């Protein structure tokens, strides 16, 4: 019998398995795909031979759990940080460059936004109540804000329609992957408070393929502790009646285990549960987690098109793409090559009826609005990834559905970006969920360990405002 079986070899499962291996536990990881990494994976693109990710991903400087995981695996130096410029937004008629000015949090980005075309003083002043709410935001506000949409919330605070259309519709799509009229105000405000509350918060990108940051390194740690990683064989169902006592693979193999960690997305977890459990809380809500799909596009040009490293279009009802990345300014050893661009079509339903060729044509045209040389360059190759789920949609009521790591089923612990982590569904949230699951497993074995890192207090003015909320010391 293995000590612990972890189902799912994405970030959450591997972070959990590595943490348990570090406590001397022999873990069996079972991953359905031939490739580890799940929604943060990469592979070699067959025509060009380049390693591409499932889609481009962003890290930021407050990803403490993810960065601790990479440090443990010796790969934390493989993030390309962008400390000065945060993001170039392709506003018209001129771009808006978001950069930090030497002002206390949460004001450091304000001067960049004050220069944005199309907005006036009336719009900026309408933002003040939201800014104040963001500075005082903490998890105790989640249940109340989770009941209303971001759009209703900002309207109730008096934000002008111009500012809603310019900033909040864009922010909602790029940070929560859901339109503003559907997003939980709690999910959106949590990210807003994080992004504005920390001095000099900056973004980073993987210098290598995403999976190259952690998958093979994690396997080595797991195997050194006496565990194993089974790839290409999915779990059909969890075994046991009163207590989960193992997993049964699709080919009928039974792997008995003292404890099982599910690090599966909600829909996959649901499929592995005994029928009568599916009706019971917290599993009864699993079918209500709705995927936010992406289409990710990779473009290989014949020349340097002088693109920004990281730029994004604003929200518009007709456009497909939001964020564009010049991988030659990110990937180790790619500098000087003809441009390779990656882009994200977020909440991509509007692209699903289009052929790959049409998606590529429109993506090049949208890129050319930001980097005009793209229109004159020859496209050598393109690759379109249709991703069924980037994250579960944080729509109204989402936060209330997120289950805790400790499940009501003895022997079963839950992990995954969508579980209750006090974080958005991100690589950081997935890693933290893996650590929380490992803490839970260890606690059941009588070992107390603090593995998950909580968000720290906001900086500067944001920190003072938050600390003034009675009895609150952390967000
Ligand atoms: C295109 C895209 C862009 C993104 N951008 C960002 C970003 O910029 N920043 C950020 O932080 N996050 C981003 N994310 C989200 C981030 O990738 C996820 O939050 C994170 O990877 C989720 O990890 P996880 O381990 O919880 O789940 P998953 O990665 O989904 O892992 C679950 C694993 O379980 C396996 N599995 C499923 N069923 C079974 C079964 N029956 N038996 C065995 N195994 C099974 C799956 O194959 C998978 O490997 C993005 C995601 C995508 C797809």
Low-confidence stretches: none
Mean pLDDT: 96
Number of strands: 19
Distance between the termini: 41 Å
CATH top level assignment of the largest domain: Alpha Beta
**Strand pairing plus helix content: what structural class?**
alpha/beta
Indicate the percent of residues in helices.
25-40%
Separate helix tally:
15
State Rg.
22 Å
- What is the CATH architecture term of the largest domain? 3-Layer(bba) Sandwich
Q: For the record, what is the CATH homologous superfamily label of the largest domain?
A: FAD/NAD(P)-binding domain
Number of domains: 3
Strand content: 15-25%
**Main sheet properties:** 7 strands, mixed
Do you know the CATH topology of the largest domain?
A: FAD/NAD(P)-binding domain
Q: Which compounds are bound in this model?
A: flavin-adenine dinucleotide
Shape: globular
Describe the structure.
The protein is an alpha/beta fold. The chain has three domains: 2-40 and 209-287 and 402-444, FAD/NAD(P)-binding domain, CATH 3.50.50; 100-199, Guanine Nucleotide Dissociation Inhibitor, domain 1 (Orthogonal Bundle), CATH 1.10.405; 291-392, Polyamine Oxidase, Chain A, domain 2, CATH 3.90.660. Helices cover 30% and strands 21% of the residues. The chain has helices at residues 11-21, 64-73, 110-114, 121-125, 128-135, 142-145, 150-156, 161-176, 185-197, 215-224, 266-272, 356-370, 398-401, 427-444, 460-467, and strands spanning 2-7, 27-31, 42-44, 51-53, 59-60, 79-82, 85-89, 96-99, 203-206, 228-231, 235-239, 246-249, 254-262, 291-301, 310-312, 323-326, 340-346, 379-392, 412-414. Strands 1, 2, 10, 11, 12, 13 and 19 form a seven-stranded mixed sheet that branches. The chain has a seven-stranded mixed sheet with strand order 8-7-15-16-17-14-18, covered by helices on one side. The protein is globular, with a radius of gyration of 22 Å. The two termini are 41 Å apart. The relative contact order is 0.19. It binds flavin-adenine dinucleotide. Flavin-adenine dinucleotide binds at residues 7-13, 30-33, 38-40, 54-55, 57-58, 234-235, 263-265, 268, 272, 294, 296, 387, 390-391, 416-417, 425-428, 430.
């Amino acid at each position: 019998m293995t000590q612990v079986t972890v189902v799912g070899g994405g970030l959450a499962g591997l972070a959990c398995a590595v943490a348990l291996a570090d406590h001397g536990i022999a873990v069996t990881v079972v991953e359905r795909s031939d490739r580890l990494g799940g929604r943060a994976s990469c592979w070699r693109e067959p025509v060009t031979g380049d390693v591409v990710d499932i889609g481009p991903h962003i890290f930021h400087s407050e990803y403490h759990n993810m960065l601790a995981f990479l440090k443990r695996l010796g790969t934390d130096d493989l993030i390309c940080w962008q400390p000065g410029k945060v993001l170039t937004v392709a506003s018209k008629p001129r771009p808006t460059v978001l950069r930090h000015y030497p002002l206390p949090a949460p004001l450091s980005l304000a001067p960049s936004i004050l220069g944005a075309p199309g907005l006036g003083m009336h719009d900026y002043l309408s933002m003040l109540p939201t800014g104040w709410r963001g500075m005082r935001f903490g998890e105790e506000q989640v249940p109340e804000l989770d009941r209303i949409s971001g759009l209703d919330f900002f309207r109730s605070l008096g934000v002008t329609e111009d500012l809603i259309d310019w900033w909040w519709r864009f922010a909602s799509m790029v940070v929560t992957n859901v339109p503003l009229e559907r997003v939980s105000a709690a999910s959106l405000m949590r990210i807003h408070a994080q992004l504005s509350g920390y001095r000099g918060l900056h973004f980073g990108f993987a210098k290598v393929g995403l999976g190259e940051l952690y998958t093979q390194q994690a396997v080595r740690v797991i195997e050194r502790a006496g565990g194993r990683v089974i790839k290409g064989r999915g779990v059909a169902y969890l075994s046991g009646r009163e207590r989960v006592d193992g997993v049964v693979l699709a080919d009928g193999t039974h792997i008995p285990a003292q404890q099982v960690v599910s690090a599966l997305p909600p829909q996959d977890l649901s499929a592995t549960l005994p029928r009568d459990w599916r009706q019971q809380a917290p599993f009864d809500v699993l079918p209500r987690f709705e995927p936010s799909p992406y289409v990710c596009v990779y473009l290989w040009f014949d020349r340097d098109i002088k693109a920004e490293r990281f730029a994004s279009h604003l929200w518009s009802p007709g456009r497909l793409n939001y964020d564009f990345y010049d991988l030659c300014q990110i990937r180790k050893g790619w500098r000087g090559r003809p441009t390779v661009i990656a882009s994200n079509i977020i909440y991509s339903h509007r692209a699903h009826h289009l052929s790959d060729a049409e998606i590529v044509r429109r993506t090049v045209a949208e890129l050319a609005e930001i980097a005009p040389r793209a229109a004159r360059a020859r496209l050598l190759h393109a690759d379109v990834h249709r991703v069924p789920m980037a994250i579960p949609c944080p729509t109204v009521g989402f936060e209330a559905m997120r289950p805790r790591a400790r499940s009501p089923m003895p022997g079963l612990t839950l992990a995954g970006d969508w579980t209750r982590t006090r974080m958005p569904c991100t690589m950081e949230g997935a890693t933290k969920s893996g650590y929380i699951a490992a803490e839970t497993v260890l606690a059941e074995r009588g070992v107390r360990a603090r593995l998950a890192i909580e968000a720290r207090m906001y900086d500067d003015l944001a920190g003072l405002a938050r600390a003034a909320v009675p009895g609150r010391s952390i967000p």
